[in-house]
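[User] Once you have settled down, look closely at the record that follows, and write a paragraph about the fold.
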Amino acid sequence: MRLTLIRRLPNPVTMGQMLGNIGPLEILVVLIIALVVFGPKRLPELGSSLGRGIREFRDTVTGEKDDDDDDVKTLNASKATTAPAPAPVEQPAEPEVAHDKQG
C-alpha cells in the first residue's frame, strides 16, 4: 500500500495553446464588433494610433531610436519661442464720491 500525499497538478495552459485557438472566424467576429462599436469613420484612426503605439513601444524596447535627446531639444526650443506674456497692469479706479447738490 502506497500513500500519496501530494498529487500532481494538471498541465497548465500555456500562451501558445491559448493563441492557437484563435482562427480566422474569431478574428472576423472581433473586427465586426469593433466596426459596430466604433463606426467606420473612427476605425482607421484607431488602427493608425494602435500601430503608432506598437511602433513606439518596439523602438523603446529595442533601443533603436534614442528619443531622450530629442525630447530635451524640443523642450528647450519651446521654452525659447514661448516668451511669458507680461502681466496686465491694473489702473486704480477713481473713487466714487457722492456730491451733495445744494443749489
About this structure: Residues 25-78 form one domain. The chain is about 50% helix and 0% strand.
